[in-house]
Write a structure and sequence with these properties.
Layout (H helix, E strand, L loop, with lengths): L2 E3 L3 H5 L5 H18 L3 E3 L19 H14 L2 E5 L11 H17 L3 E5 L12 H9 L7 E6 L2 E6 L1
Length: about 160
């Protein structure tokens, strides 16, 4: 069984001092959580783009990301590739966003992290819409690391390829 975790955006909205302090707080929050928890699915990690300081994925330190990816792999965490993650980055051109997000997914895949796909639907028409998330997983060669679920006695149990 998994626990679904989500970054605490309200806490990050209260950080004062500009983009650098906001990103440092975001990175500390994710790192502490990943080190404490075990086997969690991280719902739309890195959804920082609507914070007041105009944060972009390119602002995340790559050395820190590699360390977080190794922690995810070692602690059994799952990175949710969210179909609507672009919503969080309205000021980033779609092609650029896809490239930056893909770089992060590839980095986590290389570290051995596992992935899930999520629609993060906020309306009925979006439930199960995973087209972009699946394309991202395929483009980043992460499909072999996707968790699968199967129904057992009315419960969903993760299975792996």
């Amino acid at each position: 069984d998994y626990v679904l975790l989500e970054p605490s955006m309200p806490d990050l909205r209260n950080v004062r001092g500009g983009k650098r302090k906001t990103m440092a707080a975001a990175m500390r929050m994710l790192a502490r959580s990943a080190e404490r928890a075990r086997g969690a699915i991280y719902a739309h990690p890195f959804n920082f783009g609507r914070l007041r300081d105009d944060v972009a994925l390119r602002d995340l330190d790559r050395h820190w990301l590699r360390g977080l990816a190794r922690t995810f792999a070692a602690r059994g965490h799952v990175f949710e590739i969210m179909n609507n993650i672009w919503y969080w980055y309205p000021r980033t051109v779609p092609d650029r966003f896809a490239g930056e997000y893909g770089e992060i997914v590839r980095l986590f895949a290389a570290a051995g992290a596992r992935f899930s796909l999520g629609s993060d639907a906020h309306s009925l028409c979006g439930v199960g819409n995973l087209g972009w998330a699946l394309k991202m997983a395929r483009d980043c060669r992460a499909t072999a690391q996707l968790i699968r679920q199967r129904a057992v006695a009315g419960r969903f149990v993760p299975t792996y390829r």
